[in-house]
């Protein structure tokens, strides 16, 4: 089974890119972030033609998350991250897929930092850690995938010194991510490629993609009940080079059958 995460950066504007990638790679499960579309504008019909079921939670102009499954039944569990009833950002959705719990998240960027947006990011991370700990306590197969907007280590950024003043790389954010993984999660890509520079994001400015000046922001974390099934992982880097592409590329894992 192939499970992918992809910050699409506007699902309707980049629908041709998404459809082309789905047709080319045929992932079984896809977590999408940054739909930038209200719930009623999600392109369900177009995706259904490709054989994909979906659950989603949109938001006008910003945020938005979805989970797609290719010919697999999907059952939504929740469409918000617990812990703050006043938080109306569409950044989290969770569903049961093939006896697994698939969690799709779009963590706040946090810039400009320091400031209220960074405070919101840290608060969101705190809520995520609490919910992730609860999920681990359930002792079920869980995949926690999405755009974390965190650069975990120096190996995950082309020039660390250029990002020291950015919320993606602030010590508090990296510490929170490390604490999250330390609960017992497996960072799938880093687990399989411990010494390799792998990026999932390239800015639109300064020919970042052409220079491979990238960042690793998109992560797939696996609970202990599913981590032993991990047999492959990677990034469909070439998708970033397509016309009207997102600034992210799809990241994916391969799992053996149960």
TrEMBL record:
The UniProt family comment states:
Belongs to the DNA repair enzymes AP/ExoA family.
Q: Which Gene3D superfamilies match?
A: Endonuclease/exonuclease/phosphatase
CDD domains given for it? ExoIII-like_AP-endo
One Pfam match, given by its short name, reads: Exo_endo_phos
Keyword field: Hydrolase, Magnesium, Metal-binding
What's the name of its gene? xthA1
Q: Would the keyword Hydrolase be found if you checked this record's keyword annotation?
A: yes
Cofactor(s) needed by this chain: Mg(2+)
Return the protein name.
Answer: Exodeoxyribonuclease III
Please state every residue range assigned to the domain named Endonuclease/exonuclease/phosphatase. 4-248
């Amino acid at each position: 089974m192939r499970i992918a995460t992809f910050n699409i950066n506007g699902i309707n504007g980049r629908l041709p890119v998404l459809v082309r990638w789905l047709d080319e790679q045929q992932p079984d499960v896809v977590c999408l972030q940054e739909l930038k579309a209200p719930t009623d504008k999600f392109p369900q019909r177009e995706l259904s033609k490709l054989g994909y079921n979906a659950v989603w939670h949109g938001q006008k102009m910003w945020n938005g998350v979805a989970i797609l499954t290719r010919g697999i039944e999907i059952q939504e569990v929740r469409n918000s991250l617990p812990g703050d009833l006043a938080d109306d950002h569409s950044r989290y959705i969770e569903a049961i897929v093939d006896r697994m719990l698939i969690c799709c998240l779009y963590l706040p960027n946090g810039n400009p930092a320091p400031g209220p947006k960074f405070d919101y990011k840290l608060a969101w991370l705190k809520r995520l850690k609490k919910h992730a700990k609860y999920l681990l306590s359930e002792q079920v197969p869980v995949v926690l995938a999405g755009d974390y907007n965190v650069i975990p280590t120096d190996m995950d950024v082309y020039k660390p010194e250029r990002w020291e003043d950015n919320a993606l790389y602030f010590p508090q954010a990296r510490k929170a991510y490390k604490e999250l993984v330390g609960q017992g999660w497996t960072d799938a890509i880093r687990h399989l490629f411990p010494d390799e520079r792998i990026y999932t994001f390239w800015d639109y400015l300064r020919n970042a993609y052409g220079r491979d000046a990238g960042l690793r922001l998109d992560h797939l974390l696996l609970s202990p009940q599913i981590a032993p099934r991990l047999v492959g992982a990677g990034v469909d880097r070439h998708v970033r080079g397509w016309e009207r592409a997102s600034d992210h590329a799809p990241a994916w894992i391969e799992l053996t059958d149960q």
